[in-house]
Amino acid sequence: MSETLAQQYLNIIREIGEDEHREGLLDTPMRAAKAMQFLTQGYQQQLDEVINDAVFSSESDDMVLVKGIELYSMCEHHMLPFIGTCHIAYIPNGKVLGLSKFARIVDMYSRRLQIQENLTREVAQAVLTATDALGVGVIIEAKHMCMMMRGVEKQHSNMRTSVMLGSFRENPKTRAEFLDLLRN
Ligand SMILES: Nc1nc2c(ncn2[C@@H]2O[C@H](COP(=O)(O)OP(=O)(O)OP(=O)(O)O)[C@@H](O)[C@H]2O)c(=O)[nH]1
Ligand SMILES: [Zn+2]
Which residues form the domain of 15? Predict the structure, then answer.
């Protein structure tokens, strides 16, 4: 556990005018440091470790959709959470990826300081790298606390980002099938 990080949180507690000796705050620097390390553990992960060889031969060449993977990330501008849902589709090319690995990929890239556009691209690229798929489509819908709790304070706006690679980019029918499957 990083003592240095805990020390930084102690400084924050002092700087905002709180009493660091107040009972409820005594363990807070260490707790906050642990929480921050958890929320940024994606920096310690590598794609091949996350995939753990869970790639299986398959003759399936129909679209696979993994819908509604929840995500919790932090915006790199304010270090405040953005929270949402990720949908991933791909067209296998002789190999399929273990189902849980899609969520693990999303977690690995979410648990870093991010902007939603880059997160979407990194997830799509990782699925393509892991599967050699014919195409990959990723859509993320999220709400940004930096827009809700502060700043413009808009509670109801959602950001939707998409990245289409391979056949999802080249073939409008593939993209339409993805969007159709998502609607149903
Ligand atoms: N495109 C994009 N923008 C983001 C994301 N997360 C936060 N932002 C925006 O990043 C911008 C940073 O703008 P700045 O003007 O430098 O910072 P600021 O003064 O705190 O901005 P306000 O939020 O408008 O108060 C803001 O418009 C945020 O809404 C993201 O995932 N994608
Ligand atoms: Zn922000």
Answer: 1-39
- Asked if the structure places residue 44 within a domain, the reply is no
Do 90 and 12 fall within a single domain?
no
Find all residues with CB under 8 Å of 90, minimum gap 6, and list them: 63, 64, 97, 127, 128, 131, 133, 134, 135, 136, 137
Residue among 77, 120, 149 to mutate when testing ligand 1 (max atoms within 8 A of CB): 77
Which value does ipTM take for this structure? 0.87
Co-location of 77 and 131 in the same domain: yes
Q: How many helices (H) and strands (E) does the chain have?
A: 8, 7
Tokens 């977690």, located at residue: 107
In this structure, what CATH number is given to the domain that contains residue 128? 3.30.1130.10
Ligand in closest contact with the CA of 81:
2
Gap between the Cα atoms of 16 and 29, Å rounded: 14
User: pLDDT for 86-141, tens place per residue?
Assistant: 999 999 999 999 999 999 999 999 999 999 999 999 999 999 999 999 999 999 99
Based on the fold, state whether residues 58 and 145 are members of the same structural domain.
yes
**Ligand 1: residue whose CA is nearest its atom 13:** 77
The Cα 42–Cα 116 span in angstroms is 15
In this structure, the residue with its CA closest to atom 12 of ligand 1 is 77
Count: domains in the chain: 2
